[in-house]
Design a protein that fits this description.
Immunoglobulin-like, four-stranded antiparallel beta sheet, Receptor-type tyrosine-protein phosphatase U-like
Length: about 280
Amino acid sequence: MIFLKWEEPQEPNGLITQYEISYQSIESSDPAVNVPGPRRTISKLRNETYHVFSNLHPGTTYLFSVRACTGKGFGQAALTEITTNISAPSFDYADMPSPLGESENTITVLLRPAQGRGAPISVYQVIVEEERPRRLRREPGSQDCFPVPLTFDAALARGLVHYFGAELAASSLPEAMPFTVGDNQTYRGFWNPPLEPRKAYLIYFQATSHLKGETRLNCIRIARKAACKESKRPLEVSQRSEEMGLILGICAGGLAVLILLLGAIIIIIRKGAGDVKGLTMG
């Protein structure tokens, strides 16, 4: 959107009846925009000295022309060039695909190229976030993605729950391709470590555009990896083994005590019987 305002000519050469504003695109960093574009013209009343232009292409330079009209015709036009800001890239993930594969330490997802809006895509990033309770988890939205690159080691040192698992050049993703999160490889300086089976993760895909000092990015969650239940079995088996060993030990100890008691009772009975026999004979 562009807000254009102009001043009334100092020497209008008569009473101004209207203003004529013309504009057309003359340059764009978006290859989908035709330049030079068609010339469009609008008219404004004599007391209207501003206009708001909407539905313009992002990252595009427009040439504006304003001239006043009197009873003697149009005067000299005033020209100016204005460039619109670039917009965040857009993704085509309307039909969210299921993971292509999953193991205890990895998950394979489908990466789809984004569409630049006013500027080409500069770089892609794959972000891995450990799933935590809601009060601890950040929820990226269209205005709150991951603007600061963060390696796994840096995130670990700072106690953060997310890190960049990979950075990919825009040219490396001309079409949709699979990518394995946790493959233990390094992508442009970002290590993609194996995932911990006992943790759950959220996987995000981010696209970034840079142009003339402007940066726009967009991210979308493309997968979730649940914690592996199988990883808890060794601990449970170990705990149960310890409990069973404790129970068996208690039983064995109780049995030994019982045997000793029975042996003592038998000795006492035999001794008592011998004393009674000796007394009878005497």
